[in-house]
């Protein structure tokens, strides 16, 4: 498929499908929609500090997770918007870390100083599919294993107070808030929000929320959904 000459990688004359990417390729450009975007997180390890954020990209062939660190956070965080389409090239590809990666892709990308990201405004964005969901009823969460990822749509029945915990690894404070969600199955599940999402959430009007790729855990025999990913009001 021809690439626009004023997009990253335009001289290569081809836009690659996400599922065709692998670490052995050096020149490629994808045209993809942002389906999820996480908030900025900070880390402190062995006396070193930094920050990162991740987002998920999709096209008609599949999804891939991208992560930016430090200088690339400053460069790209405000540019990246959920549901917008971009041309992306010159990121580093590596095997996916399945502990944090919710996509089905064997690889993931890391943005670097050479990475180019340009909004797609040439009319080709209409060819890129929108975010898809595979909703799981809350009443069926007990059939999933801890560590599985699920999509949920539910009403906020309870909103817990904002609290602060200290992470074991980095020994830093992190804000959290627990929500009680219910759906047509008549069951309730706890959803934990973290960071800025926890601090800014307002559940006073019992809104309907959509959660993409919530991580299932098990707490005292009850299935729980733990979200560091993307959620939105309906």
UniProtKB/TrEMBL annotation:
Gene3D superfamilies: Nucleic acid-binding proteins (2.40.50.140). Pfam families: REPA_OB_2, tRNA_anti-codon. Keywords: DNA replication, DNA-binding, Metal-binding, Nucleus, Zinc, Zinc-finger. Signal peptide: none annotated. InterPro entries: NA-bd_OB-fold, NA-bd_OB_tRNA, REPA_OB_2. This is Replication protein A 70 kDa DNA-binding subunit. It is found in: Nucleus. PANTHER family: OS03G0429900 PROTEIN. Residues 138-224 form the Replication protein A OB domain. GO terms for cellular component: nucleus. Belongs to the replication factor A protein 1 family. The keyword Membrane does not apply. GO terms for molecular function: DNA binding; zinc ion binding. GO terms for biological process: DNA replication. Residues 28-112 form the OB domain. It comes from Mesocestoides corti.
């Amino acid at each position: 498929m021809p690439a626009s000459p004023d997009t990253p990688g335009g001289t290569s004359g081809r836009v690659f499908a996400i599922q065709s990417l692998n670490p052995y390729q050096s020149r490629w450009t994808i045209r993809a929609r942002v389906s999820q975007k996480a908030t900025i997180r900070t880390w402190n390890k062995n006396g070193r500090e930094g920050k990162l954020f991740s987002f998920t990209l999709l096209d008609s062939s599949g999804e891939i997770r991208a992560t930016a660190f430090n200088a690339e956070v400053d460069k790209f965080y405000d540019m990246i918007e959920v549901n917008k389409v971009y041309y992306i090239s010159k990121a580093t590809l590596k095997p996916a870390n399945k502990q944090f990666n919710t996509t089905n892709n064997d690889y993931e990308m890391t943005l670097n100083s050479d990475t180019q990201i340009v909004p797609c405004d040439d009319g080709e964005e209409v060819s890129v599919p929108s975010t898809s969901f595979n909703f799981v009823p809350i009443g069926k969460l007990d059939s999933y294993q801890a560590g599985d990822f699920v999509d949920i749509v539910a009403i906020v029945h309870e909103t817990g107070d904002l609290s602060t915990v200290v992470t074991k690894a980095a020994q830093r404070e992190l804000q959290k808030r627990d929500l009680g969600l219910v759906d047509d199955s008549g069951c309730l599940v706890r959803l934990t929000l973290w960071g800025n999402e926890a601090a800014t959430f307002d559940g006073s009007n019992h809104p309907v929320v959509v959660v993409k790729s919530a991580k299932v855990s098990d707490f005292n025999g009850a299935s729980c959904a733990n979200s560091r990913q993307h959620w939105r009001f309906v």
